[in-house]
Amino acid sequence: MIDKLNSLAFILAALLLMAPFGFVPFSNTLPALALLLYAIGFIQRDGGAVLLGHLANIGTIVYFGVLIGGGGVAARELLQRLGG
Q1: What integer best gives the mean pLDDT of the chain?
Q2: Is the CB of residue 10 less than 8 Å from the CB of residue 38?
Q3: pLDDT reading at 77 higher than 70
Q4: At what angle do helices 2-17 and 29-44 cross, to 10 degrees?
């Protein structure tokens, strides 16, 4: 069960790495770090590295959430200024 969860988290990190935020700093670094830590953890059977991979994955999701939320706020403000 845990192996499947770790494999799904690995796939999630790969999908986050493909997110189209190439112009934003650190948008590819965090998911790549998660993938690196997962790979090291899987090869070496090191739970600490896998745990750090999960933390990097969570950090990536939080970072992307802040980026998307901030973009939504900026778009709303722009539309309010243009509208009146």
Answers
A1: 92
A2: yes
A3: yes
A4: 150
